[in-house]
Amino acid sequence: SQTIHQWPATLVQPVGSPLSLECTVEGTSNPNLYWYRQAAGRGLQLLFYSVGIGQISSEVPQNLSASRPQDRQFILSSKKLLLSDSGFYLCAWSVGGGTYNSPLHFGNGTRLTVT
Amino acid sequence: AQSVAQPEDQVNVAEGNPLTVKCTYSVSGNPYLFWYVQYPNRGLQFLLKYITGDNLVKGSYGFEAEFNKSQTSFHLKKPSALVSDSALYFCAVRDGAGGFKTIFGAGTRLFVKA
Predict the structure, then answer these.
(1) Distance (Å, rounded) from C-alpha A75 to C-alpha B101?
(2) Average pLDDT score over residue span A25-54
(3) What is the distance in angstroms between the Cα of B102 and the nearest Cα belonging to chain A?
(4) CB-based contact B92:B104 (threshold 8 Å)
(5) What is the three-class DSSP state of A13?
(6) Minimal Cα–Cα distance from A79 to chain B, Å?
(7) How far is CA A53 from CA A9, A56, A72, B23, B81, in A?
(8) CA angle B50, B55, B60 (to 5 degrees)
(9) Which residue of B has its CA nearest to A44?
(10) A1 in contact with B, Cβ within 8 Å
């Protein structure tokens, strides 16, 4: 069966520090991968999605970036964090290979607090 | 561009009563529609989806949803609510014309009172 791992679970970082959040998926090949941010326990904002290694689509211009160095690895990064980057970051995957009707499967999230 | 509206921030229902959580959507192509549930400090869990076919879709934990194309709605329903159903519910849409982006509504918090 497929599993998704996301870490760390919580993170407190000072303003201006770098960020690296990692997500890996097991049990499937060539998944579509997604990063979402959830603010104040409500709506989800799509940040990035990827349909293959090295293919990243950015939805919101900001100081975050994403990379997919391996098929089942998705990394969210920042060179300098802002206070407004605080939130709950969720990684998700769906079946790839041109399958459009697969639901998303989410990790347990990372709660980031920028101080 | 696709969008989703969940008009109710919160829905309150007594245990044993039926529940409805509303969702309307906008998408240029045929819609792929999804419902998810989120418990505190966790990721979202998939409940059910509509892709094509029967307008009434059945999913996990006794939930179902009805697709209405003319009203562009996809309301989540359950005949008899449980206290354990209390959680945050999200409706989501993907453009069936070939997009990979899934857009979520703002969420509706469901409280089921014993």
Answers:
(1) 18
(2) 90
(3) 8
(4) yes
(5) strand
(6) 26
(7) 25, 8, 8, 34, 43
(8) 55
(9) B104
(10) no
Which one, of B12, B21, B18, lies nearest residue B91 by Cα? Answer: B21
What's the rounded mean pLDDT across residues A95-114? 89
pLDDT value of residue A61? 65
Which has the closest alpha carbon to B91: B114, B110, B113, B70? B110
What's residue A27's pLDDT? 93
Q: How sure is the predictor about A59, in pLDDT bands with cuts at 50, 70 and 90?
A: confident
Pick the residue of B51, B104, B109 with the most A CBs within 10 A to test the interface with A by mutation. B104
Give pLDDT, residue A99: 77
pLDDT tens figures, B6-15: 999 999 999 9
Q: Is-contact A92 A103, C-beta < 8 A?
A: no
Choose from A91-100, B41-50, B98-107 the range with maximum mean pLDDT: B41-50
* Sequential DSSP letters for A35-97: EEEE-TTS-EEEEEEEEETTEEEESS-SSEEEEEEETTEEEEEESS--GGG-EEEEEEEE--T
Residue B98: predicted pLDDT:
66
Of B44, B49, B100, the CB nearest to A106: B44
Test B41 with A44 for CB contact under 8 angstroms: no
